[in-house]
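In response to a reviewer's request, we include the raw inputs and outputs for one of the modeled complexes. The two entities were modeled together in a single run.
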Amino acid sequence: MTQSLGLGRAATLLLVFALGIWVSASGLVDSIVTYWEDIVYLTKQHLVLVASSGVAAILIGVPVGIWLSRPSMEKYAETVMQIFNIGTTIPTLAVVALSMTLLGIGFPPAFFGLFVASLLPIVRNTYAGLLTVPAHLKEAATGMGMTRRQILWRVELPNALYVIFSGIRTALAINVGTTPLAFLIGGGGLGELIFTGIDLMDTGMLLAGAIPTAALAVAVDFLMGQAQLHLIPKGVNPLR
Amino acid sequence: MNITVKSALTGLALAGFAMGAQAADIVVGGKNFTEQQLLSAITQLVLEANGHNVDNRAGMGSAAVRQAMENGQIDVYWEYTGTSLITYNKIEEKLDPEATYERVKELDAEKGIVWLNPSEANNTYALAMRAEDSEETGIATISDLAQAVNDDSDLTLASNAEFYARADGLKPLQETYGFEFGRANIKRMDTGLVYQALKDGQVDVGLVFATDGRIPAFNFTVLADDKGYFPSYALAPVIRHEVLEANPDIGEVLNEVSAKLNDEVMANLNASVDVEKISIENAATQFLEDNGLI
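The model returned the following structure tokens for the whole complex.
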């Protein structure tokens, strides 16, 4: 097992190395570097979009997921989740375009479109995570005389935390990858380089937008993975 | 064995069928804004009316559509003389409209691309402001704008992706007039949204196309290009040499269409789609019927 992993890793490194040689030989690196100023400026815009819409989605999504998992909502929760599921199938580009018709052009519609796109996985995972907390734990907590609120905070949420984190991780990955579309509605971000590169058949410019976008997605995913590993207590963390 | 032969034959038959289904003899290209989508649709309809089998591939960036034609993936589309002169052929000298057309005709012939007759429509890039703003600030020319930007008035510009980075685009324009919009004052977006952004007051200046119907409809003032920075952007059909050789009738038909186009006709066509929200196909059909071309 470890050996095959080592081989896979070596092959990957070799592949990356070969790719690097090819890219530098083709002069793409130089053309990417010429856009450095743009990359820095647009990466900031990109990050602001991702962070603001991501945080807003977490702040709204987690409470909504909790609320749907309460016994009083049991009758309606499945219906609401189905509506959310249907919502997930709407292409993000359409969500962005629709939010433009509501909110005009620039940052607000881009923020809103990304917020909606990130909301669904967070709500779904929060709801599912809370539902899968074993019933005997909740019964034991009731038996110990805990109030409903105490059960939620001390038993249910810690046990569901891992699943909730996975939802947030998925949402942020989708978010980073979707943010380039914000360019189309004047929201800025790395999409400017990508779409201009497509229009002008300028591979260097296109990659100057695409590579940082991909790097951001990987970085965000890595950070979330680390957070999942270290922030979730040992007893309820399958990773530790 | 028998089954193998049968399935091989079936496969062949299917492949043949697929080929048959794709056997459009003419591929029409087009760029990614209303006028170009209209022209692609007009070209498709008029060629179909003349018995051709047409594939319509509108919606690409300038460079992409040009590259596709050079590679033989696209047979015919509508191009602007100035775009070919500066962006594709990298010619920097200033030429009048006729000379521009003659020069690109000559240069592109070497690449197997034929320029048919130019129309009277000149769809130049232009910078526009809301009419009331233009009056209030006294900005009527691009020189006035340069002055205003240099005097530190915090004006914002909406541009599309292509213009921002083109050889006949924003950066050389700013060099010619000696001013510079700050990076944060340039908002880039889809071509069609610029008009809405300017109308809604989200920006002060917008990059527009001279033949766009929304300029009069939204009451914009086009700033005069007083230093003559922009070349002539006469609209003309371009076609691959081999395709024209094989179908000389296409050249005749498209020249007929080209003869019917001028700034006003183009602006009205664009407005019928962008302002009155008529579908591209209906607007194209209407135009061809009105001019007795189909």
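As requested, we also summarize the result in words. The mean pLDDT of chain A is 88. The radius of gyration of chain A is 22 Å.
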